[in-house]
Design brief:
Layout lengths: L3 E5 L3 H13 L3 E5 L2 H11 L3 E5 L7 H11 L5 E6 L3 H9 L4 E5 L3 H13 L7
Helix pairs in contact: 2-3
Length: 126
């Protein structure tokens, strides 16, 4: 059975890029365009992994990560961020992120990170 991945990004273009890449590689994809929507979809659909943009209007990726961890400590969450966001990366790791994808990303790096996190035992938070 293919893994289900929830892509969370306020940019429709970024969601489309990731969704296309992941579906072409056998994953089932769900999408959310905000942190609030992400938590709702996560609770309804229980995806195997979440890719979560850090910088979003409203609830940012860090707050959304904390919400997901509170609801489901074993959730697998990979943060997506641009280069030069080291302070956000540290905050996300401190909040329990399982991995990172840096923009602009390569298909190989996205697939490698997703597979690596999916193959790890669920962490139960940090």
């Amino acid at each position: 059975m293919s893994s289900r991945i929830l892509i969370v990004d306020d940019s429709k273009f970024m969601r489309m890029l990731l969704a296309d890449l992941l579906t072409r590689n056998g994953f089932e994809v769900l999408e959310a365009e905000s942190g609030e929507q992400a938590v709702k979809v996560f609770l309804e659909e229980s995806p195997d992994l979440v890719t979560l943009d850090i910088l979003m209007p409203g609830r940012d990726g860090i707050e959304t990560l904390q919400d997901l961890r509170a609801q489901s400590p074993e959730a697998r969450v990979v943060m997506v961020t641009a280069l030069g966001m080291e302070d956000y990366i540290k905050r996300a790791l401190d909040s329990g992120a399982d991995g990172f994808i840096l923009k602009p990303f390569s298909a190989e790096k996205v697939l490698e990170t997703v597979q690596e996190v999916l193959e790890r035992p669920a962490s139960g938070g940090s």
